[in-house]
Amino acid sequence: MDVRVTTDAQAFEQTVFPFLQQDPVLHTIIMSNVHERANGSIKAQDEASYFVSVHVGEVVGVAMRTPGRGVYLGALREDLAAPIADAYADLLPELAGVAGDRPAAARFAERWCELRDSQATESKGTRLHKLGTLTELSADSGTPRIMHADEVDLVASWAGDGFAEIAAGSRGWAERRFREGTMWIWDVDGEPVSMVGYHLPIFGVCRIGPVYTPPEHRRHGYAGALTSHVSAEILAQGNQACLYTDLANPTSNKIYHEAGYRSVADFVDYDFS
Predict the structure, then answer these.
(1) Running DSSP on this structure, what letter comes out for residue 21?
(2) Which residue, among 111, 95, 148, 150, has the nearest Cα to 273 in the 3D structure?
(3) Residues with Cβ < 8 Å from 253, sequence gap 6 or more?
(4) Where in the chain are the domains?
(5) Where are the alpha helices (H) located in the chain, listed in sequence order?
(6) Where does 131-266 sit in CATH, by number?
(7) How much is the average pLDDT of 4-9?
């Protein structure tokens, strides 16, 4: 077994994408993150990203750690988790946590705690869904439209409120979504009340997210209607749609199921202390 580490997103993309593209839905997070760094969509950061590939002749597993995040394992095989933890332990004195398929994430956490004399706490469960047959949902009122240029600050504030991983660079993130045309707004009588974004396609797959409605506008069906509209746009472009939900939020899981999304895999996050 050969465990390789690189900070070069372009080289990593060339090495591992033939393996990942065998199931671009299951590997959507790693593929989109690596591709956006490789093509410069995400600006260079002060801290390096560390990408790991495991080879047994050919690539059999991958992981990544981007600045300010924990390690992401995706659908990694459980038996590869400990060697990857060893590789990251040689690079990083501290680590916020790990996320991925439950057996792999649990094994990584166990090994990391052995190496660093720390503790791991399960903090979140998520479910990956893939769209089957779309059923368009309706809202109490309003219509969908693409984000306007003068809504960059609004979208940034919404992202900063609902998504901690975006908050630090939310304005730059919102500007990029506007340039790409990948952020939709639900509009009620000229007032933005909900947003749904998505990632540009990677091997024919678009991942929807973030989905956000401010508290004062919830329970009117805006997010569900807008998500189904964005899903229809993705299908019309000839791509597949997928998304993640928080397993602790049964309402969103029910809504996306009604729209035609079906479960693919469950993942778990561990925090280290």
Answers:
(1) T
(2) 95
(3) 127, 245, 247
(4) 2-118, 131-266
(5) 9-20, 28-38, 81-89, 102-116, 152-162, 164-167, 170-180, 222-236, 250-259
(6) 3.40.630.30
(7) 97
